[in-house]
Backbone:
């Protein structure tokens, strides 16, 4: 089966009240762990590649590995550019075989974001590729910002409607309180579900994307800290909040940090328990198995997309 776009996936996810997982990939073990779980759970899948991943592994290696996963699994898989920051990187991924790209113009003014996003949409659509835009800024707890400044970072639902109508994007990432990485909340975890609800009301049937959606799974943070790591205060989005979002307009949930934690926990534990080993296959095998188990857990218990391929 060739790569698919996200159009059909999102339509079914919206109607079915679940979300498709978008997992970041950087190497073969990560791709295999994710795709093996999705194959066993018969789940649709989005594999996403950041600019950093392209720099680390090279575009062509990642595309060829994903092609191998397609052949191996027979699953509907979309290959997506995560956080494309300009037209050039989006064009390079459209020309280089991706089926979906994100243009992240969220750091620009509203009008400049619209202009940039529209430019990418025009090019991508002419080549059969779908586009995710972003409006609003994801918070970081390290940012020293007060509450009113924080409110200003959330997506304005009226602007979201205008943005979608003027750009023609196929999906939109919005800011409702999540953030990237392992340190998302200082105190109680809080998401602005009222914003998500209003966006859903203004854009019926339109797929919304949630970034920064790792739960920062405590069991892996514990193993990392037990075997020499230092991650005090790591905290993510509670799973019940993600399930609630998946039942609303959110059709794509982005997960990277939980994969990193699962892989690192496994390698730290393995190296500590087998100090005499030096064959990378010995520690990468359990690391890949950990990725698979995390993804399986997400597909079944968080996203609700198991059995939907
Ligand atoms: O949103 C960011 C993703 O977690 C990718 O991270 O840019 O370090 O590859 P990266
Ligand atoms: P996490 O850091 O919460 O995994 O978010 C990943 C993400 O949003 C990738 O775009
Ligand atoms: Zn992101």
Residues:
């Amino acid at each position: 089966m060739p790569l698919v776009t996200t159009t059909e996936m999102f339509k079914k996810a919206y109607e079915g009240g679940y979300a498709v997982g978008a997992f970041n990939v950087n190497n073969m073990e990560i791709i295999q762990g994710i795709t093996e779980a999705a194959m066993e759970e018969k789940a649709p899948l989005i594999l996403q590649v950041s600019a950093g991943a392209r720099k680390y592994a090279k575009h062509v290696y990642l595309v060829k590995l994903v092609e191998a996963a397609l052949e191996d699994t027979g699953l509907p898989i979309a290959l997506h550019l995560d956080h494309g920051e300009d037209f050039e990187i989006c064009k390079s991924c459209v020309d280089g075989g991706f089926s979906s790209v994100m243009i992240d113009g969220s750091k620009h003014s509203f009008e400049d974001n619209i202009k940039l996003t529209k430019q990418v949409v025009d090019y991508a659509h002419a080549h059969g590729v779908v586009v995710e835009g972003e409006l609003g800024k994801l918070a970081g707890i390290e940012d020293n910002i007060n509450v009113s400044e924080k409110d200003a970072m959330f997506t304005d639902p009226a602007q979201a409607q205008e943005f979608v109508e003027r750009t023609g994007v196929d999906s939109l990432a919005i800011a409702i309180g999540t953030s990237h990485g392992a340190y998302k909340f200082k105190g109680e975890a809080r998401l602005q579900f009222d914003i998500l609800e209003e966006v859903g009301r203004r854009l019926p049937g339109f797929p919304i994307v949630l970034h920064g959606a790792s739960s920062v799974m405590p069991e892996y943070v514990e193993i990392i800290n037990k075997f020499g790591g230092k991650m005090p205060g790591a905290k993510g989005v509670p799973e019940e909040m993600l399930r609630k979002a998946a039942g609303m307009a959110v059709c794509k949930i982005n997960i990277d940090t939980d994969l990193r934690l699962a892989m690192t926990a496994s390698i730290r534990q393995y190296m500590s328990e087998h100090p005499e080993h030096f064959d990378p296959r010995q520690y990468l095998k359990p690391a890949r198995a950990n990725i698979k188990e995390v993804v399986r857990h997400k597909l079944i218990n968080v996203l609700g997309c198991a059995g939907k391929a």
User: Anything to note?
Assistant: Strands lie at 20-24, 45-49, 77-84, 100-103, 130-135, 171-174, 208-210, 250-255. The first helix runs from residue 7 to 16. The longest strand covers residues 77-84.
